Amino acid sequence: MSASEPTDPALEALRKQIDAIDEQLVGLLNRRADVVVEVGKLKQKSGGPIYAPDREKLVLDKVRKLNHGPLPDRCLEAIYREVMSGSFALEKPLRIGYLGPAGTFSHAAAVRKFGSGVEYVPLSDIPSVFEEVVRGHCDYGMVPVENSLHGGVVDTLDAFLASSAKIYAEVKVTIHHNLLAASPWESIKTVLSKPEVFSQCRNWLASTARDRDVQPAASTSKAAEIAATTPGVAAIGSTLAGQLHGLRVLFENIEDDPDNQTRFFVLSREGARKTGDDKTAIMFTTAHKPGALAEVLDVFKERGINLTDIEKRPSKKVNWEYYFFIDAEGHADEPRMKQAIEESRQHCLQLTVLGSYPRATEVL
Ligand SMILES: O=C(O)C(=O)C[C@]1(C(=O)O)C=C[C@H](O)C=C1
Question: Which atom of ligand 1 lies nearest, measured to the CA of 91?
Fold first, then answer.
């Protein structure tokens, strides 16, 4: 329809209604923002945390309860995430460190969690994310902890051994891989990505990219950067990496398992408050005697505390000595969990509570 053509009067009338509602929405959002500014002033005085995962969870739960459609919960949640991102910008600009370079899945997870009202800081490796949070150069950090197909991320588990950073929130993200390129598929001779990504896209590579040269890159972002500047090269990576490097998505969602998820931790210098639906991460080494691990696990079993994850890593100090990581349902401030932690200490050489955090209820 050209600009000069008359619009359908029915459409015109509906758009007038939308304009009137938008006027109210903008007014209401700014009334909310005025209150947030006051919250920010209180927090500046009290030194309270700007990002409050307990309150975020309550706000999102409330929004879901209030929603009777037709908007899907998922859309309203995304809108509210961005509203709360605006709150950060009004209360205090936040710096979020993540495992870079720009366009990694850690970056994408951070953007989905914290929205467009904060500053993102790419860091060269996982220990640097811990370090920058502890030093206060970043307010929060985003690190991958576990993939549904590949298990624990060892660099993150190992970083806890040497850091005082606390787990503050968890984020679950569906990992979609895409073939990104600056030129058409017919001209592509080489496909670049991280080796782990190739193993997550085996079927697509075998069927569609059979005659292409598959080469490893340091990261999906690096692959996208090279694809943007080298004719005949495509990259497998996130849509965010494609956007950042001006690439087109030639093939979408090429992963073997469409439900491939990665769990990330938000790191902080302090602990998160109780919401009633929390998890607690604990790291420990047991005494070198038979049944020591079973004794710790029994402490949780006897109290009816469910464990959602267990991982082990070599202590790197003594051969065959391990650090165990468990995620237990509940908050470390709850009496049942407090008792379980204290009793577990008796069976451990060392035990550290890495943090209690609200359970992630949505996959972003
Ligand atoms: O209630 C707070 O503590 C706020 O900072 C406000 C607010 C919001 O916009 O609702 C902003 C950010 C959050 O982390 C949680 C809530």
Answer: 5
Q: Are 152 and 94 in contact (CB under 8 A)?
A: no
pLDDT tens-place string over residues 61-75? 999 999 998 999 999
Span 178-251: which CATH code? Answer: 3.40.190.10
Q: Which atom, in ligand 1's list, is nearest to the CA of 51? A: 14
Question: Which listed residue (104, 156, 220, 262) is catalytic?
Answer: 262
pLDDT tens-place string over residues 175-228? 899 999 999 999 999 999 988 899 889 999 999 999 999 999 988 889 999 999
Report the nearest-CA residue for atom 6 of ligand 1: 36
CATH no., domain 272-358: 3.30.70.260
Name the average pLDDT for the chain.
94
Token readout for 78 is: 């995304």
Angstrom distance (rounded) from CA 330 to CA 276: 7
Residue 88 scores a pLDDT above 90: yes
- Is 262 tagged catalytic? yes
Residue-wise pLDDT for 136-147, tens only, equals 999 999 999 998
| Ligand 1 atom at minimal distance to the Cα of residue 86 | 9
* Closest protein CA for atom 3 of ligand 1: 52
Q: pTM for this one?
A: 0.89
Tell me, in angstroms, the distance from the centre of ligand 1 to residue 83's CA: 9
User: From start to end of the chain, where are the E strands?
Assistant: 95-99, 119-123, 140-147, 151-152, 166-174, 178-181, 190-193, 213-216, 233-237, 248-251, 261-268, 278-286, 307-314, 322-329, 348-358
Say if 94-175+261-267 and 272-358 have the same CATH topology.
Answer: no
What residue ranges do the domains of the chain occupy?
94-175+261-267, 178-251, 272-358
